TrEMBL record:
<dbReference type="GO" id="GO:0008168">
    <property type="term" value="F:methyltransferase activity"/>
</dbReference>
<dbReference type="InterPro" id="IPR027266">
    <property type="entry name" value="TrmE/GcvT-like"/>
</dbReference>
<keyword id="KW-0032">Aminotransferase</keyword>
<dbReference type="InterPro" id="IPR013977">
    <property type="entry name" value="GcvT_C"/>
</dbReference>
<feature type="binding site">
    <location>
        <position position="205"/>
    </location>
    <ligand>
        <name>substrate</name>
    </ligand>
</feature>
<comment type="function">
    <text>The glycine cleavage system catalyzes the degradation of glycine.</text>
</comment>
<dbReference type="GO" id="GO:0019464">
    <property type="term" value="P:glycine decarboxylation via glycine cleavage system"/>
</dbReference>
<protein>
    <recommendedName>
        <fullName>Aminomethyltransferase</fullName>
        <ecNumber>2.1.2.10</ecNumber>
    </recommendedName>
</protein>
<dbReference type="GO" id="GO:0005829">
    <property type="term" value="C:cytosol"/>
</dbReference>
<dbReference type="GO" id="GO:0004047">
    <property type="term" value="F:aminomethyltransferase activity"/>
</dbReference>
<dbReference type="InterPro" id="IPR028896">
    <property type="entry name" value="GcvT/YgfZ/DmdA"/>
</dbReference>
<dbReference type="InterPro" id="IPR029043">
    <property type="entry name" value="GcvT/YgfZ_C"/>
</dbReference>
<dbReference type="InterPro" id="IPR006223">
    <property type="entry name" value="GcvT"/>
</dbReference>
<dbReference type="InterPro" id="IPR022903">
    <property type="entry name" value="GcvT_bac"/>
</dbReference>
<comment type="subunit">
    <text>The glycine cleavage system is composed of four proteins: P, T, L and H.</text>
</comment>
<dbReference type="Pfam" id="PF08669">
    <property type="entry name" value="GCV_T_C"/>
</dbReference>
<dbReference type="Pfam" id="PF01571">
    <property type="entry name" value="GCV_T"/>
</dbReference>
């Protein structure tokens, strides 16, 4: 399989990163210690390369109506400058990907799919655009994405933004984006700044051309050092998102699953007037109660003991398999094991005591409400 490298690959090499394959990309797993990187994001700030993610511009007079048809959410209701988390499903209601869409003007959106699904989503959007007056432009290959996450993220960003634009950064709400001037290589560039993190902390994402990415990475590290900023890899990103109870495509979300079992029923807009791909199937699933009153649903599990559950480990009730873990590891912030798992709805209520089969030994866990961790505002 071809190994893709982001524009920041050289920066990661210089920083001594350990690499791993993720969706066909060679991405930094960690730089020195994933625990140190995790704690930096919770207590100060972490710098992430997310350039393996996709970026697809959808523009034209029918952009809003088209995305209402192509995605499960009601994108036409998103205000200019705001963003929406949504799903792209197949005709059977299976989840092809979860993604974020930013409305940049009345007739222009930026759709951001996950790394492993970027090409698939771009192709599907182009295919579903038939009959709509829209242009679908996949710019993933020429766009870099850098994220600064943590309680000091805003202070760090302000060091690179002209003073006159500081209010744009300070007043930017969660799930919103704005164009601001950011100093890259000694020159101020107008770049898209979003506030839609995946770590459970405050933070920002910066979209920019590949050619400018190394200089911005270096500038952020230089200005962020005084604020405790360090580069962070995918290992910390995974433990952070798990503590925040956020699903990962390929673990909690897949073509074999559907939004209601994953707790994402509110993301599906059956109330919108227009048809959308998967509507009939999703309406039938909701009507059947699957994932809410029947079948299995996604829950959080808190370890009663010290051993951590891992993906695909069976979940037991009185020795009978009633579910399966999708993600699990020790929580660096909370000090005990946490996991996400699909379990029979009869055993999904918070407070329910279950076991996880840890390679032949039953380890006690308790169903708890998500997220496991919630930052102090």
């Amino acid at each position: 399989m071809t190994e893709n490298h982001t524009a920041l690959y050289g920066e990661h090499q210089k920083a001594g990163a350990s690499f791993t394959d993720f969706g066909g990309w060679q991405m930094p797993l960690k730089y020195s210690s994933e625990l140190a990187e995790h704690h930096a994001v919770r207590n100060a700030a972490g710098l992430f390369d997310l350039s393996h993610m996709g970026e697809v511009w959808v523009s034209g007079p029918d952009a809003a109506a088209f995305l209402d048809y192509a995605l499960a959410g009601k994108l036409s209701a998103v205000a200019v400058g705001k963003a929406k988390y949504s799903l792209i499903c197949n005709a059977d209601g299976g989840i092809i990907d979860d993604l974020i869409s930013y409305r940049r003007s009345d007739d222009k959106y930026l759709v951001v799919p996950n790394a492993g699904n970027a090409a698939t989503v771009a192709a599907l959007l182009a295919e579903r655009a038939a009959g709509f007056d829209v242009r679908v432009q996949d710019v993933s290959g020429e766009t870099s994405l850098i994220a600064v996450q943590g309680p000091n993220a805003e202070a760090i960003l302000l060091t690179l933004v002209p003073a006159g634009q500081h209010p744009l950064v300070k007043e930017l709400k969660y799930y919103a984006a704005v164009e601001v001037g950011i100093t890259v290589g000694g020159t101020v560039h107008e770049l898209l700044l979003a506030r839609t993190g995946y770590t459970g902390e405050d933070g920002f994402e910066i979209y920019l051309p590949n050619a400018d990415a190394p200089a911005l990475w270096q500038a952020l590290l230089a200005s962020g050092t005084a604020h405790g900023l360090i580069p962070a890899g995918l290992a910390a990103r995974d433990s952070l998102r798990l503590e925040a109870g956020m699903p990962l495509y390929g673990n909690e979300l897949s073509l074999d699953g559907h939004p209601y079992a994953a707790g994402l029923g509110p993301v599906v807009s059956l109330a919108k007037e227009s048809d959308f791909v998967g509507r009939a199937a999703l309406a039938a699933i909701k009507e059947s109660g699957e994932g809410t009153t029947t079948g299995r649903k996604l829950v959080g599990l808190k370890g009663v003991g010290r051993r951590a559950a891992r993906g695909h480990y069976p979940v037991l009730k009185d020795g009978v398999v009633i579910g399966e873990v999708t993600s699990g590891q020790p929580s660096p912030t909370l000090g005990y094991p946490v996991a996400l798992a699909y379990v029979d709805v009869a055993h999904a209520e918070p407070g329910t005591l279950l076991d996880v089969d840890l390679r032949g030994k039953a380890e006690p866990f308790e169903v708890v409400a998500l997220p496991f961790y919630r930052r102090q505002k």
